[in-house]
Amino acid sequence: MKNVAGSIILVFLIHVNCMSQKMSETDLDFWIGNWNCFSSDTLIGENLILKSMNNKVVEEKFMTFDDGFEGGSWSVFDSVSAVWNQTWVDNSGAYMLFTGSKDRDTIFFTENNSVTLNGQKHYRRMIFYSIELNSFEWKWQSSPDRIKWKTNWHISYKRRLP
Fold first, then answer.
1. Residue 67 maps to which CATH number?
2. C or N terminus of the chain, fewer CB within 10 Å?
3. Residue range of the domain that includes 34
4. Are 108 and 127 spatial neighbours (Cβ–Cβ below 8 Å)?
C-alpha cells in the first residue's frame, strides 16, 4: 500500500512540475492597457495597467463602481528564478504577496502564505486565461488544500479602446 501511495504522489509531483513553465519578462505584456471589467455581462469596474521604472515594473490600479473597492498591485520579474512576484494592497487593508507561474497560455499568481478563514487554512490564487489581444478572463480562487479550487470572483476583461 505504501508503494502505491508513493507512486501516486510521485506521478502527481511530476505532473505538477511538467505543468509549470519558465516565465519570461514579457509574460504580462498582454495586460498593459486600460480595461473594462465585466461580471456576468455587467460592467463592474475598470483596471489601468502600465509599465514603469524602465519597464521593469507592471503597475495596476483597479476599482469597482458599485462599492468603491480600490486596489493596486506592483509586479516585478525576477530574472534569476524566472518568476513574476506581485504585491497587492487595497482599501480594505489587504496586503498580499503572490508568485507567478505559467502553464501553456494560462498565468497563475498564487499567494505565498495561507490565510485562516473561519478557523480553516486557505490558499488563494488568481488565474489569467483565454488571453487575446483585446480580452482575457480572470478568476480569484481559494482552496483548503491547493487541489480543489473554488472560484470566488470571475471577471471578463475587455480592452477600453480610444
1. 2.40.128.20
2. C
3. 2-159
4. yes
